[in-house]
């Protein structure tokens, strides 16, 4: 199964992705985690991505897309994957479609985790990651509204929308059920 998870920062995509990845037996590919691993290892990619991430801005698409293409080319992603954090813009969605179609592949579903803005800001402040201060959060929400939210319309009828406010296990169960029905 080839899945994309969408939702505002702080929607709990990472948490849900980890559960789904285990239950569906597909690798969880998080662009945020890949960038953070590169920053930790001080790779050239990490060094370039860091300033954008610290400011709450998007890392340039060319860099991000290359990283995703490399990851998708690994063997464990040959039969399915769960993308978390990519695509984040309509341009990235088009790049992903091209990457997949060149391999004769397509997405099976796009899951949209829906959460109100007050809840996500509260969650991010509570989790306290390096880029979770108030200014950066405000920038990321703005980037979400301007760049990422248009993906909801882009995917249209392909979208499976899940209410992501509530109990973690219940949200996971609702997602699995919706995926079975999709
Ligand atoms: P969150 O879901 O809380 O926004 P992520 O871990 O998904 O956190 O992303 C953290 C940061 O990594 C983003 O603010 C951005 O700087 C960078 N990033 C992640 N995915 C992408 C992407 N697809 N395109 C550009 N930048 C990205």
Description:
The protein is of the alpha/beta class. 57% of the residues lie in helices and 13% in strands. The protein contains nine helices and five strands; from the N terminus they run E-H-E-H-H-H-E-H-E-H-H-H-E-H. The protein has helices spanning 13-24, 31-40, 44-55, 61-72, 90-101, 117-127, 134-148, 150-155, 168-181; strands at residues 2-6, 28-30, 81-84, 109-114, 159-163. Helix 1 crosses helix 9 (168-181) and helix 2 (31-40) crosses helix 3. The mean pLDDT is 96. Adenosine-5'-diphosphate is lined by residues 9-10, 13, 31-32, 35, 52-53, 56-59, 64, 85-86, 88, 92, 140.
Task: Summarize the entry for a quick read.
The protein is α/β, with parallel strands linked by helices and 182 residues long. It contains nine helices and five strands; from the N terminus they run βαβαααβαβαααβα.
Order of helices and strands: EHEHHHEHEHHHEH
Radius of gyration, taken over Cα atoms and rounded to an integer in Å: 16 Å
In CATH, the architecture is 3-Layer(aba) Sandwich
- Shape descriptor reads globular
**Order of strands in the sheet with the most strands?**
2-3-1-4-5
Which ranges are low-confidence, i.e. pLDDT below 50, for 5 or more consecutive residues? none
Q: Count up the domains.
A: 1
């Amino acid at each position: 199964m080839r899945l994309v998870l969408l939702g505002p920062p702080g929607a709990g995509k990472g948490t849900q992705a980890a559960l789904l990845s285990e239950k569906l037996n597909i690798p969880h590919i998080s662009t945020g985690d890949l960038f953070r691993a590169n920053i930790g290892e001080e790779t050239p990619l990490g060094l370039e991505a860091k300033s954008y991430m610290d400011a709450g801005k998007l890392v340039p698409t060319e860099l991000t897309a290359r990283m995703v293409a490399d990851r998708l080319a690994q063997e464990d992603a040959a039969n399915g994957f769960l993308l978390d954090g990519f695509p984040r813009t309509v341009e990235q969605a088009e790049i992903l479609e091209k990457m997949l179609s060149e391999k004769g592949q397509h997405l099976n579903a796009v899951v949209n985790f829906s959460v109100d803005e007050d809840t996500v800001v509260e969650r991010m402040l509570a989790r306290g990651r390096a880029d979770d201060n108030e200014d950066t959060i405000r920038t990321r929400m703005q980037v979400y509204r301007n760049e990422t939210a248009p993906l909801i319309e882009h995917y249209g009828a392909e979208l499976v929308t899940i209410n992501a406010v509530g109990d973690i296990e219940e949200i996971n169960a609702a997602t699995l059920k919706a995926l079975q029905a999709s």
